[in-house]
């Protein structure tokens, strides 16, 4: 009897736990994942596009997210912290594209450059459809359905995003279903910022030799050689570039922690967007299934026929 009690007590101590918090402003509702034994804490905001706004391990902050207040909401509008990018990662030039001989006009939310930026699920309200916590892992699935009434993207779809936490890994899985009566174009991406107490001494590493040359609207033009070799010690380097990488893996090492991003290859090339804000306290490392402006340049563009689904997964090893 005493042994059974001790086993139960130990199991409770090492288990993952999932809690939900309702706030006065529902956009700031939270799902928190903790494991005191592993010293892991993470927070997801279902009503901000199911975005990940906190990830700490051993009290070290890995994800640079927002604060749980109005100031945080304002920051999210401008910085897109950890937002998921669908159906179009990054920019669409003038918000215009042609697909199957039809021309569409998306809303341009990057007014300074007149581009459509980062798709349209980053601010959508996701429903929590599954939570499960055990000694080994925690799993949360969030779902959003669109009936095809989005400006410039009149296609019905459902997207499920599943977070799976284990000891040293966070897997983010995507499942997109075409619920319309015609095929549609799409791409997927993730826009996390990773904190660094010393960005200049942090190291970015990936296998690749080419990036896109950008015009004055930050739209990709031709491929050019990357002006540096990897691994790159960032120092004073400014990045706002899309790289064509040869392996679907990227490593980022700071004085405090190291992460590896693995993401599935969906075409002959892998796409990685990197951005260093002027604050120089973090870096955006964004895996994408396609290049910016893919609705027009077709680089990595995916299509989904009616009633079919598409799966993609990102593994964040920390």
> What is the 3D shape?
globular
Largest sheet: 9 strands, antiparallel
Sequence stretches where pLDDT stays below 50 over 5 or more residues: none
CATH-defined fold name: Beta-galactosidase, Chain A, domain 5
**Given this structure, which CATH class is correct?**
Mainly Beta
Could you characterize what this model shows?
The protein is mainly β and about 325 residues long. It has one domain (about 1-315): Beta-galactosidase, Chain A, domain 5 (Distorted Sandwich). The protein is built from three helices and 28 strands. The chain has helices spanning about 1-15, 70-80, 295, and strands spanning about 15-20, 30-35, 40-45, 50-55, 60, 85, 90-95, 95-100, 100-105, 115, 125-135, 140-145, 155-165, 170-180, 185, 190, 195, 205, 210-215, 220-225, 230-235, 240-245, 250-255, 260-265, 270-275, 280-290, 300-305, 310-315. A nine-stranded antiparallel β-sheet has the order 11-12-13-14-28-24-23-18-21, with no helix packed on it. A hairpin with a 2-residue loop joins β4 (about 50-55) and β5 (about 60). The relative contact order is 0.15.
What brief labels describe this structure?
mainly beta, 8% helix, 318 residues, single chain, Beta-galactosidase, Chain A, domain 5, six-stranded antiparallel beta sheet, nine-stranded antiparallel beta sheet
Short recap of the structure:
The protein is 8% helix and 46% strand. By secondary structure, the protein is mainly beta. The protein has one domain: Distorted Sandwich (Beta-galactosidase, Chain A, domain 5).
